[in-house]
């Protein structure tokens, strides 16, 4: 509460001084030049430092970062991407504002690009084979930034090349159900070109579903109803508004899995074993091409799609930087953002990179001045090749699996920092909820009024918690950004932070220029976040979370907040699956017991921590408790639970295809068992999945008990 | 050195006082009643306490323990086994000499027993179907302990029931090659009964190999040449010598895997999912029965084997007891021995249980007196149903996977404590070598002369180490006892300790009465270890190792001792596979680099530790280093490396079937690729296995670097 006032002053100062350094305004009692605290001292979160950091995170600097970052397209592995690697290294090695050390880690990964010689084409063909109309090969050069050799042609990465020709069939989202519906209507799908719109299912799924019905090629367009709140004329779209121009085309990866496609579970270093191209799974089976809604509207009858995509082995780098912890250097607070974009990527991902650079500058400056060094290590990461399938982050987790799994306190992801100006949006696992709440309660929300970020957030996303009453609602983590390998493969408590929309004002599926050549600096500066106050809000939120995680004596991970999730999964299972399971003589009793045991142990641990916090506990004692908190999430991993789901090992957050919102393994197995005629084997899998969850919960509860209890 | 003298005194005292308590002789400066050291104090190994423990470990008490433990047969899940659970609980809860707490953990597991109504029979059948000769159904009641209802009939646990009849074929060890050889000789195997002898391959493999050739039933006998140094007459065998009487039959489990057969990867608690019997893999495919050599000699021509084994779900318990650590209670030194025997099991396993009880008594007494409490927790385990396939220990690791994997410093196994009187024998992973050496150098060897256990050991098992010169040679850990789930499934540094033979005096495959009704107290008392000094030597060795691991400020795990192993694996790969791999364009270069990197990082870590030991390091700093040491072994686990080898995840110690003594995955894949005609896929697997090892070594090296290095 206290420092929201200081923050007001900070904003004024920043405005006055522009790029000037505003340190003087936050005169804090300067400590001696050497901060080196006695190593066992119970160094704790320093609220003065926190205030200083919050005050110094500068919207204007974020804006300047973004201008530089988004000046040129920086597709993964492009020369400009490589330039940005150097920019990050230079910033992180700066003697005045850099980190303790920084390094680039390079992988050789399989990417997919359109041919430079033969652009992909989509033509309407007349009855005699003549071309009646050709779709745009590039987006219209509206602002001067949509032209030039570095703007990559819209394409579906990893779609195979080929030039199918056939009748056009509109297939809605291209879901399994959409194609079944067409079949029911008597429409012949064999040999056709399916026109689908983005949304509903993953990009690659559209081609997978289509191919099952004999479809020869797939087009994917962006529907103005989904992205532009129905608006579609040039005068209503960028650069006249934030909406997508008619020629805009969403690029994207159509790969089903994540990580380098050639080296699953192995780091893509040059010496690693690589699959034969013929043995890769997860690529779209048929030629696929995205188009704009202008072209989609014009498409008629017979269409020819020519895709000339090529697979290439390319070098792609992660850049890592570290601030070494003063007391527990072997505990890592890991903060990551990807660097590569499809074109200029001002929003995706450079809004996040601009925030990353500002955060590292402010913390690096305090570090280099000798004012501060965190208790635990802080690791900053700039991931490469995220757009092609979270490749850089995944390879990193493969290369350093044990080191990261044993030592990482939490992973904080900021990909797109700002989708829009309305509210914070956080996805994360339950143990991070409390630290996010603590941080956001203390930061003023941008925009009118005097709300905290927390109080503003709760207006947009909220839920009624049986424990806390009305609270902001955290979303759950899917696999949409670089947090995926950390939560699903390594079992590290993770979160993803952004500012986002007021849903009462737009129904846009995502910000309209997503993955197009219109995602530029001016787009952000004029429409998304003029003044960059939402960027600053994200920087402050992330900064406060980083400091709380790295500096607090007791780790601010509240494991008992998992109890609500488990209870809700259990209730869903009881209500929506209970009768069905009973019919098959499967009891939920052991699951009930396991959830109750977890709840009791988590609550008891919480009480022990509260007791200890009242005294002056020994650093080693606190370390032991912190290890229990840090490692809880690992207990939910079982690498043998879902052998066919690559990387997914977290038995609570693995992908759920079943309709019941319960434990994913149980939900999915029930859904399959109910569908299938085969019977007993499918029901045995339901029982196996239930036992896997019970074992994980019982095992998790055991890790929360006093450490020397049997 | 100092306390070998004290030890002499201790031995005298023990002899004088018999069962009396000899504490007074080791008057140590008694500390105040509450030992509670300041929790952060660098509590370190106390040599006085070590001396006290060594002196108090009493051969006579071990003998009395053994007499009680082996008084009755205590087959897994039998009433007497249950009595011993109570005995352990009573000892471990004793107010004068017990532990902090003790508890039984019970699982419901699938065991296999001969039918009580219909004994298994092996008959020689005449041409008209008449029975010419029947094999013994029980062993001869030579000492009065081979009769009675609790002496289970010799049988092959988990062999299916059935009564095949056919011509007898002698098949040596029953290896794959043995059956191929018979086929080459033109001997028809279809429908025959194979007579095989123990040894050469695992028990269950004999039936698996036989069934592949159409053999209908398998007999397995103990050959006097293998077990009795050729002697076979009653006058030359027990009770006149340690050799096996003609009627003796080795029982044993014929299950291929370990753990409860119905619940792989899940704890066998009542609620866990259980496989359908039809889906169990790893049981012998055809009826199998073990017999004695007396009967084996008499077998002729047509034989009928009737097996009536039955599978039963039974309760089997582990008993766990703990001494809570004073400073780092969340670090566990785990010491285990199984409790169940086939019959009286005086050697297997009660020699180990007798030692376990004496160790817990001595440490428990110091604890209860308030003289001592270890820095870390010590956990004692009495495993159930080991004989059926390491079932109790495996279920325990399944139930408490994360807790154990995160916190266990090392696992020490003593199964059979004493095979014979000649020398120590230790199997273990490299990080435990140094602590075993340190302990054994300070303990006097039993028997004549004034050698240390170490100096005696080196006379029997030694190797020339490039680093240390001539040293005792540690064997590697297979899957022969309860250490298997700890090393292979959890990646915990493990060791197995016993006293064993002078190989110049006997070629017995194992002690001759192994798994027979002749393995009794008198057998041990008269032939194996009169005076129980070898038992005492094992108790002292294990006791010293436990104290060193639980009390030393710096963990005595020397990770750089892995370098020798890696180097030797690498050299074997280069010498014996290099040319072959080159032919297939597979380079060992990355492996060379990875081994070198490991060596360098391990050496550097060793140096950092040495430096730190010279100062007065902070407990938290030491904890961080100790975590690196403790967790190194985990880096070698990859649960996706050998998907078909149940539980085996350790990429250095998984079962090796290939002939080249290198990394098992590489050795096995090369062997298969070389055998197979299929070609490219098999060679891709070689490359994959090589990358798995390289990734593990690089990952391991990364965990050894300074913790805040990128």
Keywords:
globular, seven-stranded mixed beta sheet, disulfide bond (chains A, B), Glucose Oxidase, domain 1, Transcription Elongation Factor S-II, Chain A, alpha/beta, calcium (chains A, B), homodimer, PA_domain (chains A, B), glycoprotein (chains A, B), 710 residues, zinc (chains A, B)
Describe what you observe in this structure.
The structure is a homodimer of 710-residue chains. The first copy, chain A, has 710 residues and is an alpha/beta fold. Chain A has 3 domains: 2-33 and 43-109 and 315-502 and 519-551, 3-Layer(aba) Sandwich (Aminopeptidase), CATH 3.40.630.10; 115-308, Glucose Oxidase, domain 1; 559-704, Transcription Elongation Factor S-II, Chain A (Up-down Bundle). Helices cover 37% and strands 16% of the residues of chain A. Chain A has 21 helices and 18 strands. In chain A, helix 12 packs across helix 16. Chains A and B meet through strand 1, strand 11, strand 12, helix 11 and helix 19 of A and strand 1, strand 11, strand 12, helix 11 and helix 19 of B. Chains A, B: Residues 167-252 form the PA domain. Chains A, B: It is found in: Apical cell membrane. Chains A, B: Residues 586-705 form the Transferrin receptor-like dimerisation domain.
Alpha-beta classification of chain A: alpha/beta
Instruction: Note the main sheet of chain A.
Output: 7 strands, mixed
Strand order in space, largest sheet of chain A: 1-11-13-12-14-18-15
Helix segment tally of chain A: 21
CATH superfamily of the largest domain in chain A: Zn peptidases
CATH architecture of the largest domain in chain A: 3-Layer(aba) Sandwich
Oligomeric form: homodimer
How many structural domains in the coordinates of chain A? 3
Measured on Cα atoms, how large is the radius of gyration of chain A?
26 Å
Distance between the termini of chain A: 44 Å
Overall pLDDT score of chain A = 91
In CATH terms, what is the fold-level topology of the largest domain in chain A?
Aminopeptidase
Task: Outline the low-pLDDT stretches of chain A.
Answer: 1-39
Strand content of chain A: 15-25%
Bulk shape of chain A: globular
Question: Share of helix among residues of chain A?
Answer: 25-40%
The chain pair forming the largest interface, with residue counts per chain, is: A-B, 72 and 71 residues
CATH class of the largest domain in chain A: Alpha Beta
């Amino acid at each position: 509460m206290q420092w929201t006032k200081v923050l007001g002053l900070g904003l004024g100062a920043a405005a006055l001084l522009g790029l000037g350094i505003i340190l003087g305004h936050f005169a804090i009692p300067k400590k001696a030049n050497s901060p080196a605290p006695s190593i066992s001292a119970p160094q704790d979160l320093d609220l003065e430092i926190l205030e200083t950091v919050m005050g110094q995170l500068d919207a204007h600097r974020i804006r300047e970062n973004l201008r530089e970052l988004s000046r040129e397209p920086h597709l993964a592995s492009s020369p400009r991407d490589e330039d940005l690697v150097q920019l990050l290294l230079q910033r992180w090695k700066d003697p005045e504002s850099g980190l303790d050390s920084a390094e680039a880690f390079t992988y050789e990964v399989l990417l997919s690009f359109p041919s430079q010689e033969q652009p992909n084409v989509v033509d309407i063909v007349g009855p005699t084979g003549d071309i009646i109309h050709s779709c745009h090969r590039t987006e219209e050069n509206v602002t001067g930034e949509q032209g030039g050799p570095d703007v990559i042609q819209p394409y579906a990465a990893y779609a195979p090349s080929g030039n199918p020709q056939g009748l056009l069939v509109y297939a809605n989202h291209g879901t399994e159900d959409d194609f079944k519906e067409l079949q029911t209507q008597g429409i012949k799908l064999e040999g056709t070109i399916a026109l689908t719109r983005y949304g509903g299912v993953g990009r690659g799924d559209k081609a997978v579903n289509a191919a099952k019905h004999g479809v020869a090629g797939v087009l994917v367009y962006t529907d103005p109803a989904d992205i532009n709140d129905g608006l579609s004329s040039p005068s209503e779209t960028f650069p006249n508004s934030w909406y997508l121009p008619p020629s805009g085309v969403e690029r994207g990866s159509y790969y089903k899995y994540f990580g380098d496609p050639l080296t699953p579970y192995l780091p893509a270093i040059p010496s690693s074993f690589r699959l034969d191209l013929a043995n890769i799974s997860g690529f779209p089976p048929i030629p696929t091409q995205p188009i704009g809604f202008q072209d989609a509207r014009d498409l008629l009858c017979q269409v020819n799609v020519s895709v000339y995509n090529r697979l290439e082995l390319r070098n792609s780098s992660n850049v890592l930087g570290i601030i070494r912890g003063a007391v527990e250097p072997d505990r890592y607070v890991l903060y990551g953002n990807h660097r590569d974009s499809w074109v200029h990527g001002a929003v995706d991902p450079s809004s996040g990179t601009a925030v990353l650079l500002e955060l590292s500058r402010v913390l690096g400056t305090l570090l280099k001045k000798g004012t501060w060094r965190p208790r635990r290590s802080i690791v900053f990461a700039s991931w490469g090749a995220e757009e092609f399938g979270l490749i850089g982050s995944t390879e990193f987790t493969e290369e350093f699996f044990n080191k990261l799994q044993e030592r990482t306190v939490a992973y904080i992801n900021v990909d797109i920092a700002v989708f829009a100006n309305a509210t914070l949006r956080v996805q994360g696992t339950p143990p991070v909820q409390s630290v996010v709440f603590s941080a956001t309660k203390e930061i003023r929300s941008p925009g009118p009024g005097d709300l905290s970020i927390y109080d503003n957030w709760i207006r947009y996303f909220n839920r009624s918690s049986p424990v806390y009453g009305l609270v902001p609602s955290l979303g759950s983590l899917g696999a949409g950004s670089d947090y995926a390998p950390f939560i699903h493969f390594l079992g590290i408590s993770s979160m993803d932070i952004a500012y986002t929309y007021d849903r009462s004002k737009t129904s846009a599926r995502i910000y309209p220029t997503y993955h197009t050549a219109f995602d530029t600096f001016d787009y952000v500066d004029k429409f998304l976040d003029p003044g960059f106050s939402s960027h600053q809000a994200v920087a402050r939120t992330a900064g406060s979370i980083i400091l709380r995680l790295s500096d607090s004596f007791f780790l601010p991970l509240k494991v008992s907040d998992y109890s609500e999730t488990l209870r809700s999964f259990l209730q869903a299972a009881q209500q929506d699956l209970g009768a069905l399971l009973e019919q098959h003589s499967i009891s939920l009793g052991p699951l009930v017991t396991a959830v109750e045991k977890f709840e009791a142990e988590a609550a008891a641990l919480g009480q022990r921590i509260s007791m200890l916090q009242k005294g002056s506990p020994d650093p080693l004692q606190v370390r032991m408790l912190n290890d229990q908190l840090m490692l809880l999430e690992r207990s939910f991993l079982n690498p043998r639970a879902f052998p066919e789901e690559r990387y997914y090992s977290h038995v609570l957050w693995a992908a759920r295809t079943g309709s019941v919102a319960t434990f994913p393994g149980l939900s999915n197995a029930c859904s399959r068992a109910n569908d299938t005629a085969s019977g007993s084997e499918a029901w045995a899998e339901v029982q196996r999945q239930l036992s896997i969850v019970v074992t994980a919960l019982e095992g998790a509860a055991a890790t929360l008990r006093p450490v020397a209890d049997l």
